[in-house]
Amino acid sequence: MSLPMRPTCIIPLICVILMSAPGCTARYAANWTSLDARPLPKWFDEAKIGIFVHWGVFSVPGFGQFSEWFWYWWHSQRRAEEVKFMQKNYPPGFKYADFASEFRAEFFEPDNWADIFKASGARYVVFTSKHHEGFTNWPSAGSWNWNSVDVGPHRDLVGELATAIRKKSLHFGLYHSLYEWYHPLYLLDQASGFKTQNFVAQKTLPELVDLVMSYKPDLIWSDGDWDAPDTYWNSTEFLAWLYNDSPIKDVVVTNDRWGKGCYCKHGGYYNCADRYTPGKLPDHKWEKCQSIDSRSWGYRRDMMLSEIMDLPSIIKDMVYVVALGGNYLLNIGPMSDGMIAPVFEERLRGLGAWLGINGEAIYASKPWRVQTENSTVTVWYTAKNKIVYAIILGWPSKQPLQLTAPKTSGVTQVTLLDYPNVPLKWAPVTPTAGLTIVMPTMPASPGDAWCLKLEGVV
C-alpha cells in the first residue's frame, strides 16, 4: 500500500481498509476547525479518574529513569547508565529484540488487574497497545514476530484486558505511539524530511484502524507525534473517519498529540506536556497524566520507596486537577511477568478508599466560581447540582475553620462526608460572605484530606 507524497485526503484509503461502502459521510471535515468543534463525549468529563498502564518489552530490563525508553538510551548510547547496565548483566551481541522472549507475562491475570483498577475508584483505564519500541500488545499484522502473540506471552494482551475491564463497567482506552524509533520505513520517511509517508500508510494508519475495529476503545491516547507535523501523520483525515464513520464515533475520546505543534491546541482534550499542571483554570478540557513512580512510566526494578508518591501526595494532586476542571490519569508500570508491584496496588486501593467516602465531590463535578483559598489549611472547591464541596488538605490546626469564599443563606447546611448525617455547627463571618465551621473530633485520614459538603451557599 502506498500513498502519494501528500494526498489531498486519505479517507478513501481508510474506507478501503475497512471495506466499507463507497464514500464516507462527512459530518466532521478533515480540518482542525471542524474536528475541534466536536463536543467531548459526556462520560469523559464525568469520569475524572483514570489508570494509565505502561507495559511492554521495556518492562524486562526495567531499569533507569524513564525505563520505557530503555532501548533508545542504550542503542543510541545517550546515557552511560544503560550502557553500563547491559555490559555488566548481558553478554556481548545481546540485542534489544532478545528481551521479547523474556516478556512472558506468566502471572498476568487480567481479571485481577481489573479488580485493582475498580477498587482504585477509577472510571477508565488507558493501556499501552504499542510504545515507541514498536512491540504491539496485540497480534498486529504489521508487526510480524514483534507482537505479544508471536513472541513472549503468546497472548492478545489488549483483548484480554479489554474484556476484563469492561466486565467491571469501566471505560477502556488505548495508548498508541504514532512513531517507532527504529522502524525502517519510519527512518526512510524521516530521512526524506517527512516528504514521503510510507510508514504512515503501511504501519500507523492500518494499526490505528485495526485497534478501533478489533477492540472499539472508548479513548485513543496518541503519542510519539512530535517529530513530524500532523500532515505527515494524516491525523485530521484519520480523526474525521473516527468521528464520522467508525463504530465508536459517538463515544470515543481523543487527546491532543497528533503532530508537531498540536498539543494544547488541537484534539478532543488536552494533555499538553507530561504531568501538565496549569496555574489557573484552563478554558478547555484537560487531563494530567502522573506516574506513581516519580522517575518512570514503565516498571523499574531499581525503584526506591522514597521515589514513590505517597497516598496524601496522590490525593492532593488529584484534588488540584479536578478542582481546575481536569481528569487525573494515574500511571503504574507492571512487572514483565504481569504482576503489579504491591506498593502500586496499595496506593491504588488507598485512593479508592478515599474516593469511596469523598467521591461525590469528585465524580461529575465542575469547577466552582472560586477554585481555591488558603485558610489555616489549603482548600479546593468543586461543585455539583447546586452543592459546593470544600476539600481541605490536612486537618485544620485552629478551630473553628474559616472559609471566606462561600456566601451563606438562611438554608445553609454543612456536613462532613465522613459523617454525612451529622450537620456541623457554623456561623457567618459577615452578613454576605464567609463562614466559620466547628470541626468534629476526627481520626486520622489515610489521605490526609477531608471534604465538607456545603448546601445552600453560592
TrEMBL record:
State whether it acts alone or in a complex, and with which partners, per the record.
Homotetramer.
Give the GO molecular function terms: alpha-L-fucosidase activity
Q: Does the keyword ATP-binding apply?
A: no
Identify this protein by name.
Answer: Alpha-L-fucosidase
Alphabetical UniProt keywords: Glycoprotein, Glycosidase, Hydrolase, Lipid metabolism, Lysosome, Signal
| EC id | 3.2.1.51
Q: Which family does it belong to?
A: Belongs to the glycosyl hydrolase 29 family.
Q: Which organism is it from?
A: Sander lucioperca
Catalyses: a neolactoside IV(2)-alpha-Fuc-nLc4Cer(d18:1(4E)) + H2O = a neolactoside nLc4Cer(d18:1(4E)) + L-fucose; an alpha-L-fucoside + H2O = L-fucose + an alcohol; a neolactoside IV(2)-alpha-Fuc-nLc4Cer(d18:0) + H2O = a neolactoside nLc4Cer(d18:0) + L-fucose
Matching PANTHER family, A to Z?
ALPHA-L-FUCOSIDASE, TISSUE ALPHA-L-FUCOSIDASE
- Protein role: Alpha-L-fucosidase is responsible for hydrolyzing the alpha-1,6-linked fucose joined to the reducing-end N-acetylglucosamine of the carbohydrate moieties of glycoproteins.
Q: Where in the cell is it found?
A: Lysosome
Instruction: Site May be important for catalysis: list residues.
Output: 289
Q: Do you know which SUPFAM superfamilies this protein is assigned to? A: (Trans)glycosidases (SSF51445)
Report the record's Gene Ontology biological process terms. fucose metabolic process; glycoside catabolic process; lipid metabolic process
Alpha-L-fucosidase C-terminal domain boundaries: 371-455
Q: Which InterPro entries match?
A: FUC_metazoa-typ, Fucosidase_C, GH, Glyco_hydro_29, Glyco_hydro_29_CS, Glyco_hydro_29_N, Glyco_hydro_b
